[in-house]
Structures are given as structure tokens and as C-alpha cells.
Specification:
With about 250 residues, the chain is an alpha+beta fold. It has 3 domains: about 60 residues, RNA-binding S4 domain (Structural Genomics Hypothetical 15.5 Kd Protein In mrcA-pckA Intergenic Region, Chain A), CATH 3.10.290; about 80 residues, Pseudouridine synthase I, catalytic domain, N-terminal subdomain (Alpha-Beta Plaits, 2-Layer Sandwich); about 80 residues, Alpha-Beta Plaits, CATH 3.30.70.1560. Helix content is about 20%, strand content about 30%. It is built from 6 helices and 17 strands. α1 packs across α2. It is elongated and about 70 Å long.
């Protein structure tokens, strides 16, 4: 991870990347005099350190940057993506191996949705994947009640008005089932809160099940529900580059 960092880096960011705490909590540690750099107390969070050369301690214990980890996880229904849940529901990070440092999900899936979510301790990677401006596409399989008309599908593609926002243009495919239900395949680069459920409800076809099956070139594939795997380096490189097409010979 240090290869991707500026040289030097702000102390509060260093502590966050090292998995000690969030940047805001790091500011509190620094303000309370609990952080030292090369043996000296630091006056403010804006102080910069050189990863790999500066000696940083918190409460006397050395802090170093952890190795970046990137997981693909098949989220079960009922598991939440937040790291702080007042209802004490099972969280995504509870399903990952201990000892990997301060992990957090990249983006979100609501508790009722299932499928692919990425989990990391790498803030730069998370921002590249999650922010719509980088264009990393997410593909969802959505089971809806009824048979959406051509007009309804076109409204989804062009974007619909929900409250005070317009949803982004997306790609939509439809596969009717034999029991008055339809599987929609939606591809979009943004991910607002419960957006797909609200989009489908807005055009008159409520969501029964929602599963994310791909993020960029990373596919859910045959990963078991509740299981995880480490991303391959080429998958990480693809996501950082904003690639959405599957690489020849890659996972499917």
C-alpha cells in the first residue's frame, strides 16, 4: 500500500490507513497527545509523516501500514453493510476472517438484498470502486412481480423521477418466467440507497428478490452464499482502472 501513498502523508490519514481508527478518531487521538512521531508529541493532525521511515506510536505502541486486502463476499439476506449497527444485526465484517485489520464494505447492499459486495481496508481502492465518477458498473439480477411492459423498461433505461432525484441512465434486460414474474438484469454505475427497489416500484413492478452478480470485471460466479475469496491482482487492477469488460481467461 505504501507505494500508492504520497510522500509524505498526513498523520491522521496514516493512522486510518494503518487500521487504527477513522480519520476523525485519529484527530482526537492526536489532540489528546496519545500519538508520537519519532518520539515527539505532535501538535495537530496536519503533521505529515513518511511511511516506512517515520516512527509513529499510539499510546507507546508502534503503528505501521497494514497490507491491503481485497475480498469478494457473497452477502446473505439479513446481513448489513454498515460497520455500526444499533440493532446488533450480523454485519458483513463479522463474516470475514479476523486479523485483517479495519475492514469495511465498498458501497452497500440493503439488508434484504444478496450477492456480491467487496470488502477492503484500502480507502483509495474503495473510493475508486464506489464513486460513480469512476464509472465502475454494477450488475444486478432483480426478480419482479408481473411482466414489465416495453414502456416500463424504457422508463427504467432512461431514468425515473424518485422524490427529488432522477435515477441515472442504465441498461436493462428482461427474462419472463412462467409464473407472472420477470427477471430483470440492470447495469448501472451509481448505487443510491435502495435505488433499484424504488425504481421498479415507481414503474409499477415491485421487487421480490435482488442480487448483485458483478462489479466491474469481478463476477459473483459460483461463490457460495456467506463465503468470501480474495480478489486476484488483475481484478484489483481492472477495478482501479475502471474497466467493466471481462478479461479473456478471467473469472466468470
Amino acid at each position: 500500500m505504501t507505494e500508492d501513498l504520497p510522500d509524505p502523508v498526513r498523520l491522521n490519514r496514516f493512522l486510518a490507513l494503518a487500521g487504527v481508527c477513522s480519520r476523525r478518531a485519529a484527530d482526537d487521538l492526536i489532540r489528546d497527545g496519545r500519538v508520537r512521531v519519532d518520539g515527539d508529541a505532535v501538535p495537530e493532525s496536519g503533521v505529515k509523516v513518511v511511511p516506512g521511515r517515520s516512527v509513529v506510536t499510539v499510546d507507546g505502541r508502534p503503528v505501521s501500514l497494514q497490507v491491503a486486502v481485497h475480498f469478494a463476499f457473497n452477502k446473505p439476506k439479513g446481513v448489513v453493510c454498515t460497520n455500526a449497527d444499533d440493532e446488533r444485526r450480523r454485519r458483513v465484517i463479522d463474516c470475514l476472517p479476523p486479523g485483517a485489520g479495519r475492514l469495511y464494505p465498498v458501497g452497500r447492499l440493503d439488508a434484504d438484498s444478496t450477492g456480491l459486495i467487496l470488502v477492503t481496508n484500502d480507502g483509495g481502492f474503495a473510493e475508486k470502486v464506489a464513486h460513480p465518477r469512476h464509472g465502475v458498473e454494477k450488475i444486478y439480477e432483480v426478480l419482479v412481480k408481473g411482466r414489465p411492459t416495453a414502456e416500463a423498461l424504457e422508463r427504467l433505461r432512461e431514468g425515473v423521477r424518485i422524490g427529488d432525484m432522477d435515477t441515472a441512465v442504465c441498461r436493462v434486460g428482461a427474462r419472463p418466467l412462467g409464473d407472472a414474474r420477470t427477471v430483470l438484469t440492470l447495469t448501472l454505475a451509481e448505487g443510491k440507497n435502495r435505488e433499484i427497489r424504488r425504481m421498479c416500484a415507481r414503474v409499477g413492478f415491485p421487487v421480490l428478490e435482488l442480487r448483485r452478480v458483478r462489479i466491474g470485471t469481478v463476477a459473483l460466479g459460483d461463490l457460495d452464499v456467506g463465503a468470501h475469496r480474495s480478489l486476484e491482482q488483475r481484478e484489483i487492477d481492472d477495478l482501479l482502472a475502471g474497466r467493466n469488460q471481462r478479461l479473456q481467461g478471467g473469472r466468470s
